[in-house]
Specification:
The protein is built from twelve helices and twelve strands. The chain has 369 residues and is of the alpha/beta class. It has a domain of 219 residues: Rossmann fold (3-Layer(aba) Sandwich), CATH 3.40.50. Strand 11 and strand 12 form a beta hairpin. GO terms for molecular function: ATP binding; ATP hydrolysis activity.
C-alpha cells in the first residue's frame, strides 16, 4: 500500500550559544529519522522525555522546518511547501496538543474555536451552516450543541481535550497527530479519550500518529510502534511483536520499567542506569552505549546501522541478536490483577466496546457541572 506519510533522513537541529562568553553549539533534537506510515493505521512514537519525539511530530506537520531531509505527504513534498500547497497540508493534517488548558484561546467561545477552521477551509458555508457543523462536531466527540456558547474555563480537562479533538476534525483531515493527548488527564478520563480517538480513527478512516508515555495505551491502540532515543529511532515494529519480543536493550528497559505489584521475575528485569546524554553533545558510536549493560568497544566507536528482519521489524543495535536469545531464555513476568484490569480497560478502546458513546448528546460523569 502506498504510504500516506514518509520521512527520509529527517534532522532538526537548534543552534545554541553564540553570546559574548558562549560557544556556538547545536541541539540535535531529531537526528536522521526515517519512517513510513500507511493510510488508516495508528502509528505510535515512544521514548523518554527529551528524546525528540514531540519535535519530530511538529516537523512531520511542518510546524517546524527541517534542518535536512525530506517529508512527503501523499506523495507531495512537505518540506518547503508554500501558499496553496501549505494550506492543503494544514487541511489534511491536524494536531492535538498535549495541554488542553493552554491550547485553547480563553477569550474565544467553543463555537468560535471549533468553527474557526471552517472559516479558513470551508468559506462557502453560511453562518447557519457553520453553526450546524460545529454542533455536529461537538456531538461527535461527546459534547452537547449548547456547549458552543461557553468558554474553555467552564469545562473540565477531559472536556477541553474533546474540544481540541473537535477542532482538529473540523477541516476534515486525513491524518491526525496527537502529542501525548491524554497525559495531562486523570486516568479515568484518559480511558474515555483513548476510546474516543480509537472510535474516530475507525469510523472516519483516519490515520493516527500518537506520542505517549503510557505503554498500555500504545499496546492496545497502535498498529506499529517506533522507539526513539536521543533523536534517533532505535527500534520499530508491530505493537504485538515489539511488546512480546523487544530486541533493543533500551526498548526492553522501557517495558520492564512498567510498574508491577507482583514482583515475580523482578530480578531479570532490564534497568536503565544514569541520565540520558545531552542532545547538544551526543556520545560517539551508539547513543545508548553510556547506559547499556551490553555495550562493547564496538558500541562506543561505531554507530549501529538499522537492521530489518523479513517481518519488517527494525533494530539499530550491534548485538540485538544475542540480546534477543537471552530474552527468550528468561521466565516471563506475570502481571498483577490491577495491571491486567487496566490493560483490559484500554483493550476495550479497539475492540469496539463503548466506554462512552462517541456521538451521544447525554453528558457523561466528567461533563456534569
Amino acid at each position: 500500500m502506498k504510504p500516506i506519510l514518509e520521512a527520509q533522513n529527517v534532522t532538526k537541529h537548534f543552534p545554541t550559544g553564540g553570546g559574548l562568553f558562549q560557544k556556538k553549539g547545536l541541539v540535535k533534537a531529531v537526528d536522521g529519522v526515517s519512517l513510513s506510515i500507511t493510510p488508516g493505521e495508528t502509528f505510535a512514537i515512544v521514548g523518554e522525555s527529551g528524546c525528540g519525539k514531540s519535535t519530530l511530530a511538529r516537523v512531520l506537520m511542518r510546524l517546524l522546518d527541517t534542518t535536512s531531509g525530506d517529508v512527503m505527504f501523499d506523495g507531495k513534498q512537505v518540506t518547503g511547501a508554500q501558499g496553496t500547497a501549505l494550506s492543503a497540508l494544514r487541511r489534511d493534517v491536524q494536531f492535538i496538543f498535549q495541554d488542553p488548558f493552554s491550547s485553547l484561546n480563553p477569550r474565544m467561545s467553543v463555537g468560535r474555536l471549533v468553527g474557526e477552521p471552517l472559516e479558513v477551509h470551508a468559506p462557502e458555508l453560511t453562518k447557519g451552516e457553520r453553526r450546524a457543523k460545529v454542533s455536529e462536531l461537538l456531538a461527535q466527540v461527546g459534547l452537547r450543541p449548547e456547549h458552543a456558547d461557553r468558554y474553555p474555563h467552564e469545562f473540565s480537562g477531559g472536556q477541553r481535550q474533546r474540544i481540541g479533538i473537535a477542532r482538529a476534525l473540523a477541516s476534515g483531515p486525513r491524518l491526525i497527530i496527537g502529542d501525548e493527548p491524554v497525559s495531562a488527564l486523570d486516568v479515568s478520563v484518559q480511558a474515555q479519550v483513548v476510546n474516543l480517538l480509537g472510535d474516530l480513527g475507525r469510523d472516519l478512516g483516519l490515520t493516527l500518529i500518537l506520542i505517549a508515555h503510557d505503554l498500555a495505551v500504545i499496546r492496545h491502540m497502535s498498529d506499529r510502534v517506533a522507539v526513539m532515543y536521543l533523536g534517533k529511532i532505535v527500534e520499530q515494529g508491530t505493537a504485538d511483536d515489539l511488546f512480546e519480543n523487544p530486541r533493543h536493550p533500551y526498548t526492553r528497559a522501557l517495558l520492564d520499567a512498567i510498574p508491577d505489584l507482583d514482583d515475580q521475575g523482578g530480578a531479570s528485569r532490564a534497568r536503565i542506569e544514569g541520565e540520558m546524554p545531552s542532545p547538544s553533545a551526543p556520545p560517539p558510536g551508539c547513543a545508548f552505549h553510556t547506559r547499556c549493560p551490553h555495550a562493547t568497544e564496538l558500541c562506543r566507536t561505531k554507530v549501529p546501522a538499522p537492521e530489518e528482519t523479513p517481518d519488517g521489524h527494525m533494530t539499530a543495535c550491534h548485538h540485538w541478536q544475542d540480546i534477543a536469545v537471552a530474552r527468550r531464555k528468561t521466565t516471563p513476568r506475570s502481571r498483577s490483577p490491577a495491571t491486567e484490569a487496566r490493560l483490559e480497560l484500554y483493550a476495550k478502546a479497539t475492540e469496539g466496546t463503548q466506554i462512552i458513546p462517541v456521538a451521544s448528546k447525554t453528558p457523561d460523569r466528567e461533563e456534569t457541572k
